[in-house]
Amino acid sequence: MTITTRSNAGPLTVLVTRRAVLTLPDDSLLLSPATISISPATGKIVAIVPTVLPRSSFPLSTTYINYGSKLVIPGLVDAHVHLNEPGRTEWEGFRTGTRAAASGGVTTVVDMPLNAIPPTTTLAGFKEKLAASEGQCWVDVGFYGGVIPGNADELLPLVEAGVRGFKGFLIESGVEEFPAISSNDIALAMKTLKDAPTTLMFHAEMIPPIADSVGDAVQASDPPLAPHGDLQSYQTFLESRPPSFETYAIDEIVSLAHLAPKLHLHIVHLSATQAIPILKAARKSGVDITAETCFHYLGLAAEGVERGDCRYKCCPPIREQVNQDGLWEELTASDSCIKTIVSDHSPCTPELKLLPPRLQTIEAPHMHHSDSGIDMTADLADSNEEKDVAEIRAAAKEVGDFFAAWGGISSVGLGLPILYTSAKSRAAAGSKCAPSILDIVRLCSAATAKQVGLSHRKGALKVGMDADICVFDDTEEWVLHSHGMHWKNRCSPWEGHRFTGRVKETWLRGQKVFEHGGVNGGFVSGKPVGEAIVEKRFA
């Protein structure tokens, strides 16, 4: 069977392998031998034959690479990444964040509207972000807009400017320039976007009307707002963000969905399995709502978090092993509401993690923030004054305080080995809920591309698509050390973990941009070749 054959002449790059994940005309996936022909001139896939053709089948000028039995899959599309530029470039930036993505076979990232300053909540803010990205991106980058109180008039202009969707918080975000939205704000956003080709996404945590602890509001430290228990105990933090925060928020979103019946609604970083029945019932009733989950919810569990190890802190929190098992089960369900898996790469400086001395490896400069605890946002205008820094440091709670530490996990570029290792381990243990490599491609490439309106060019090995390719050795075993992290601040709960499967090469639009062990630290293209994706979304 020939999927298609090349008819045009010109320079040619041919990649062959005994195992490729191909996308068929009906968008189903097939693991097959393949010969993939790429036009370096256009950056597109021009032909695919589901067999290994010899070098002699092509002109002598052809660049021909045989990967043997290594897996060749479409580049991953990570649809949830915080690059933080401009404004918080001490946390991350376009250059470092996209290099990390490229090192892990991710060829497209979609940048969240926060924690950059300004956030992408206005057209002017979007233009500032685009200007900051120029010449820095090692992979292609799309952008989300943000929904905050009072910016409804900015939403449609942002759609026209090419944002891939919008995100709002139903609980305080942790940065003052991106406040939480009320039910009235949600309703107004839905009405504004009801006929637009976009996705409205939600950080779905919401404080129930009666709650014993409220996570981000513990600054008050008065009952009933104060957390109960040892602040260096992960269990204390976990109990402060119960599953009811997620279910209450999703109930609220679903209750308003009738205002925009054609608008795609999406729950970001779903953690609590208790929300799954709510989402399934809504979908069954006709609401266009989906969810994503994250690599850390699938590979880490609360039981494994040591005292004071705030590298594990994120919101919603990493929950218990039984909850993780439920997420894996949902991924392979025929009627699953979890359609995508993303990193939610949300870095900060190591200092803001308030790590105990035994976990501290890197000194980093101080930056203001406010997240699940002590208020550190005072007077950004004076943030460079040593006196202010000293006063804030003096007010900071002791190291290992899960409520005072910044919440966010660094993992962009690690998703493929995380998922592959975890799935292999679960299969070996007899689990029937272990996704195959086809499932991983569906969840991390095809579906994420669709989620952001890029399935016409990203997320598939198919003729006419961008030649975004990941070469994966699924047999290599390795351990992640800090020197192997390519994001700006080498602080992650994944440090020390052993993985099976390593990304060997990453190709972006027909050009190899990363090769493990290659020159320039592996970034063999020598300079960034990624682009900002600003084409208007149509689907």
Please explain how this structure is put together.
With about 550 residues, the chain is an alpha/beta fold. The protein has twelve helices and 19 strands. Helix content is about 25%, strand content about 20%. Strands 1, 2, 3, 4, 5, 17, 18 and 19 form an eight-stranded mixed sheet that branches. Strands 9-10-11-12-13-14 form a six-stranded parallel sheet. A three-stranded parallel sheet has the order 6-7-8. Strand 7, helix 2 and strand 8 (about 140-145) form a beta-alpha-beta unit. Helix 3 (about 150-160) packs parallel to helix 4. It is globular, with a radius of gyration of 23 Å. The two termini are about 30 Å apart.
The radius of gyration computed from the alpha-carbon positions, rounded to a whole number of angstroms, is 23 Å
Mean pLDDT: 90
Number of DSSP helical runs: 12
Return residue spans where pLDDT drops below 50 for at least 5 consecutive residues. Answer: 1-7, 218-224, 362-396
Helix fraction, binned, reads 10-25%
Question: What is the terminal separation in angstroms?
Answer: 31 Å
Shape: globular
Largest sheet: 8 strands, mixed
What is the number of strand segments?
A: 19
Q: Please report which band the strand proportion falls in: under 5%, 5-15%, 15-25%, 25-35%, 35-45% or over 45%.
A: 15-25%
Task: Classify the secondary structure makeup into a structural class.
Answer: alpha/beta
Oligomer: single chain
List strands and helices in order, with pairings.
Layout: E1 13-23, E2 29-39, E3 44-49, E4 63-66, E5 71-74, E6 76-81, H1 94-103, E7 106-111, H2 123-133, E8 140-143, E9 145-146, H3 152-161, E10 166-169, H4 183-193, E11 199-203, H5 234-240, H6 243-256, E12 264-267, H7 276-284, E13 289-294, H8 295-299, H9 321-331, E14 338-342, E15 369-370, E16 375-376, H10 386-395, H11 415-428, H12 437-451, E17 469-479, E18 498-508, E19 511-515
Helix pairs in contact: 3-4
